[in-house]
């Protein structure tokens, strides 16, 4: 009896071990299969596209209140939705500080970064970029009383400048204007309030963003006819993806960007976002 019982117990133990090993092997195979999938395949498998953005740069990304809840909207968010629709998945937006976005992309917290980002040479070393979806110019806002004081970059160099932390404008102010005593904040509204309070003399922003903020806040104005000739006269925007073998994903994104630009649909998206900002100010 005991001998037979021991034999049965031994057989049972072997069976349990076999099942456990099979399960372990199955998990390893699943993990290996997932690891071998391309980014676009993984996105489709997950059923969602996770996009990181810093929602303080209207009309590209900003926050509104809808039915008592905060909602992130803007031209970049609409662009992200177009990408999600193309891939046949849901869109999930993750909000974070501007300078936290690329680390989040590199660590797979997000699939894409769409936040009015310029594909400069420094960023290209750490992430890949799509084709350009927006080309604009940089602008400067100052107090209304100081509007006549800024006529050249030499005038800017004598002022305390504010920029969004990690932005292409910060690179321009630091590398082109050679300023060290500038102020970099994560939030554009905070920069405008510092300007109004006299903590800084001017804010360098994308020209559309500058115009919107000048219209939104009393006492500030866009400097007109100011030529930023030292590499600060143009701002390009592209979508960032994790560096590596993302050719299939980049091709899909670039195809959609081309379609939207060629058809004029992107211009409509941007115009609608500008209108939405205007409505929020009323």
From TrEMBL:
Keywords, alphabetical: Signal
Annotated ranges, domain Solute-binding protein family 3/N-terminal: 48-273
Matching PANTHER family: ARGININE-BINDING EXTRACELLULAR PROTEIN ARTP, MEMBRANE-BOUND LYTIC MUREIN TRANSGLYCOSYLASE F
Biological classification of the source: Bacteria, Bacillati, Bacillota, Clostridia, Peptostreptococcales
A Pfam match: SBP_bac_3
SMART domains with a match to the protein in the record: PBPb
Source superkingdom: Bacteria
Name used for this protein in its record: Transporter substrate-binding domain-containing protein
InterPro entries in alphabetical order: Solute-binding_3/MltF_N
Signal peptide annotation: 1-22
